[in-house]
Amino acid sequence: MLKNSKINNRILLLFVLSVISLLKANSQETIKGKIMDKEGNPVFAVNVILKSNFSPLTISDLDGKFEFQKNKINQKDTILFSCMGYNSVEKSYNELNSGKEIAITLKENEIALDEVTVLGKQSISKEFSVKELDRVSIYMAPASSGDPLRAITLLPYSTNTSESANPEIRGSSSDYSRVIVNNVPVYKPVRNSQLNGIGHFSLLNTDLIGNQLVYAGNPPLKFGNSTSGLVEVETIHRLETDSKLKFSSSLASVGLLYSQPLKEKTSFIQLYGNFQFSIGYTSLNRKNLDYIKDFRTYDVGLNYRQELSKKTNINIYSYAVKENYNADNVMYNFCSNMYSTAKRNFNIININYRYKNLYFSINNGTNFALTKFVFGNYNITQKDLQIYTSLDSKIYLNSNISLQGGVNHDHSKISFNNILPYYYYAMKETDLSYSFKNTERNNNIEAYLYGKINFNKGVIGFGLRKNAPTKKQDNYLSYQANVRLNMNDNHSMILSGGKYNGYNIPNYIIEDFSNVSSNQISLDYLYNKNNLNITASAYYRKDKQPVFYQETGGVTPTIIETYGVEFSLGYSFSKFNVNASYVYLFAEMNDGEKWFDADNRMKYIVKGSINYYNNKIFNASINFIARPGLYYTPITSSVFDEEANSNKPLFGTLFSNQYNSYSSVDLSINKIISWGKFKFTTFASLTNILNTSNREKATYNEDYSKRSYWLYQKRILYFGASIAL
What is the pLDDT of residue 561? Predict the structure, then answer.
């Protein structure tokens, strides 16, 4: 009893000391002031930011007042006051440390700084993202080829194993990672997805992007139908350059971008078009691209923004593409020509309105797609229709508390008109086949609430999302909690956890909508000081989703558990930037009968890049990636099926074989030349410099007695140029 009393006294003493410490911290000197426009009206929701690392200090309240503790800054710091629609104002420590209330006057925006452009359209969940990219950083990212989704692939949390622009984050399939453009989901965000090389680009034009946030896990529940990583993209809010015309040409494409301001630079229209073709690309790289016969892609796009008033704006983003692809392909023991075509158009409309401290938005997206695929006795036609509508509102209750809520309706209709092999292993044009027609519909209606609370040393976030089930849909609730702790100007930690629900996107293999779910927890550490950046992460996730097993030819609900650890280091000096990262990934699956290791369990994923920046000479980047080969289920033998008139493969133990280790070294170089109003850029890239034979999938002879391998992309040379007028 005495022992328990001593313990209780110690706990009480510790509690009292903690309270005193908190009271002391809260009693520290503060810097406070009031922010007004040139007419003397208070300006609400002004971001007060430490300029050196853009960490938030506070936000002005409804009366334009702000206050933050003096110990958050030092004598060398500069404070940035930023709000969309106004010029930013910078104040030094000495200017603010007068002991009196500071008066800050903001003028209407005439010249926008890069950092203001980003902060003015800040996402409510931005503090819980692990990476933010703008247009310039995307172009400068190693191995990005100027593509916003490829810019992610060399980052440590990307576990992409397909050499494509598809976002594969922390061991998840790209089918469950979401790309959001202007608050609207864009499913299947890549074009030429059958192409292993140049065509593996996203549907997005980097010149139209304002900023891009990457959530490696625990996607913010202001968006739905995401159970894995999420990429949030916003198009630009104002033109940042006087150039109206940009012409580009490369070994495989020509493109044109036209930008025209309509009212200063906050209202504008952008038009662009591209044509991709294979003749130059495949001719120069014939030895390593002999499987490609031809590809042609035509795409056009529009980005239109109109400031209707100081409180209202409208944005329209529209894109259309037509693709043709002809190449050799192999499946099991059958190798033949594959031909695919695709037509697609998606449109995104956003209407935004602000009333005092309230922000309202209406977001609508439509997607129309027609895809055809012919390979052996496969003849697949798929039509996709998606209509997405959301009503969202955001309110700043005070400088520390903000809430966002709304409802959305995600309608999908997918129609199949397919001819498929009667026996999955008999794929010749003359083999038996059958016709299959089906239409699947899904109406996903959800409501959500997302909140954020700023406190002295960080931010707390929380989210709830509930569906209104229709027909055979499951009744579910998604929830999450996030804490970002900024220990000082250099050290931050993000702890996130939650449960997430959604639906798979059907294809010719999994042809119906099924509920998918994920339980996740992650811890991320970020260190940033001067030229040094360090990150470390640990995470766990448990997913439930439908999986197709080639061994049985069927789809089975499967539980997938993933454990991962990440570490990365970045350092800049002189004209160099060096990055290195290590990832450990373990994944196992349960098909309802047993547990077994997944195909993408990897003891290491090592990435590195050395970047050299010198605009007077050239910019260059050399990148490296190494990982173990993926696991696969071998075909050990076969029996001849007289009815199918083909050999039926007999599979060995699930995921018991492993491809050889994967490695690739890539080089990219560019030169920027300014001449008066003209800016001329040349670039070249050499992928897989060492011409390494990395195995992608196993192939077999007629009776499966011999095994060979289909390879990832080998050495490829690519170059081009652009000029801005």
Answer: 96
